[in-house]
Substrate-binding domain-containing protein
Amino acid sequence: MVKAHRVTIQDVAVLSGLSICTVSRALRNLPNVSEKAQAKVADAAAKLGYKASSAAARLAGGNTGSIAIIAPTATAWFFAQAVEAAEEVFGDSGFDSVLISLRGKSSVKRKIFDDLLGLSQRVDGVLLLNVDLSESEVALLAASGLAVASVGMTSVPWDNVGIDDELAAWQATSHLLGLGHWDLAVLSGRETQENSVLTSSDRLKGFSRALKDHHLTVHPDLVINSDSTIDGGRKAMNELIAHRSLPTAVFADCDEAAFGALMAMREHGLSAPKNVSVIGIDDHPMSWFLGLSTVAQPVADQGAFAANLLVDRLQNADAPNEPSNHFLDTKLIERKTTRRQR
Amino acid sequence: MVKAHRVTIQDVAVLSGLSICTVSRALRNLPNVSEKAQAKVADAAAKLGYKASSAAARLAGGNTGSIAIIAPTATAWFFAQAVEAAEEVFGDSGFDSVLISLRGKSSVKRKIFDDLLGLSQRVDGVLLLNVDLSESEVALLAASGLAVASVGMTSVPWDNVGIDDELAAWQATSHLLGLGHWDLAVLSGRETQENSVLTSSDRLKGFSRALKDHHLTVHPDLVINSDSTIDGGRKAMNELIAHRSLPTAVFADCDEAAFGALMAMREHGLSAPKNVSVIGIDDHPMSWFLGLSTVAQPVADQGAFAANLLVDRLQNADAPNEPSNHFLDTKLIERKTTRRQR
DNA sequence: GCCAAAATTGTAAGCGCTTACACTCTTCTT
DNA sequence: AAGAAGAGTGTAAGCGCTTACAATTTTGGC
């Protein structure tokens, strides 16, 4: 095969009759370039099919043209959606997406922070998806010189997009209460160091608040850990069925946990809403399939929104506006697993 | 904040008392480096926490240290699993993973091939997951100088890992036939330019072969397109229910399509296996939940295996062995949606 | 019209690494 | 024991880009 000669900035300079320097500036839309020059350069570059070498650009102090997407896992439905949405935004803006999955291993996260300098040299920015960061990690990232944005994180010194988790849980719980249920259990994700689900504690708060609104209180025995997984939800529900008096309704803090609960019920010859009403949060595609009542959250939108904020920061480095925090709407979707308590 | 001075190869050279050149060679385990020098360099590098600049390395003709993972989508269960497995292998071998999702858009694929030179300059290799490539695209990639490996592709001039799709379909169909079913419909992914499911035609072949083994033939009216999606499966099954005589068993060429079929049945007051036996391929986690009989395929294993092959190629560029093609085992899992036909 | 200020363009020095090639030591031959 | 061959190491020239800073052209005020 013929080794195609790479089109360099030099070629563009020659064709446009300008210097490399002017071409470089024109290409990056820097000031101090006449319109005429700008046009000539654009023309020559197009004609030659010129694409800047990101390696050279980076080495010389420019940008890498890539952004890291860091997520606790890439396989869970939520993250797969958010990652793809972000990747699309980045791709459309000309950035490569470097995927980093923590896979529930704190060692991976540690490695990233140990080599933050290395990372900052390979990417221009970082998009964090629900990553549980210690204060010092937040500080390190903020000081790294990298542009940062996140989804589903709170009190961070950069742009964040999420839902109001407390409100979502409140919506779900209030729906149950509104149907006349007052004997409620909650399947809650646990906060662990290894695999923290940042949102769970807020959701638990929303649950409590809804109860309080109805002059009820949370019974500790009816707060059960689900790990926010199908299997965890199943185990939690099994426990509920085996060892405790069955509540009339269950709020699972994510749909996966609700699936597990439904499964456990079926294994015991029970079903929703006949024996127990069940509601989740997410609106996983399978929820529709199973008729699960839930509170829907826009997942791809969150990823795309945060990605756009990050791209904006990167492209308008000049505008140093305050970090913003955006809440996207959640919406109760009543399906078949919840009904009025008689 | 203090701008930390980047540790360069120069620093390592000074500390080890050797020249930059020797350090560079030692670091990359090239020949012609004495053990003493090797040790000194390793020592100095460790002491300084030296990490080579991938940009500089790349620019100078070395490697980028990143690998592109190209998939038709990142959200589907299969791809999310495979991507994460590959990302883990790459990460452990020191490579960054650049995720590129085609998102069912041929325009994205075209853009990649238009800029293959650009890509080859940003990554060392490419892992293709079930990407439908034209002959010319295969040729371009093979000639690009990039290391390539793939999952689920056939007759490609590079390492490939997959399952025997025809066999898997044969296994599923034979199970149905073995239970006494002879009136079968198949829900098959369609081959379209936009969103081709490469495996579908092989699976259809396996279906045919199983029928033939039992001296039956495929009835064209009972081959229905499902797009390999839940919704497609649902529509397909609805069609079957509405317009045609119901077969006694249905083979869906992936679990998602089977889910849709089950849903459609439920909407019409039917259920599996009571009215129709249903089997899929994949062993999606939800299949267990729904009791769907299926043929399991190792998904993460395929991604990891292919990723390892690619890393091997990259790290032992000297060994120019033939491209290999590996088939991983599939296994019938009999659950509750299939039963003997009386 | 003249000159300073502003706008535009060019020159050249790296960024941190790889690699062709030159050079210095060892080892073996014979 | 002298010379060739080879192992180990160093020198220096880039890779393609960005960016101070210098050089040049344009603009505008009076």
About this structure: The two ends of chain B are 78 Å apart (CA to CA).
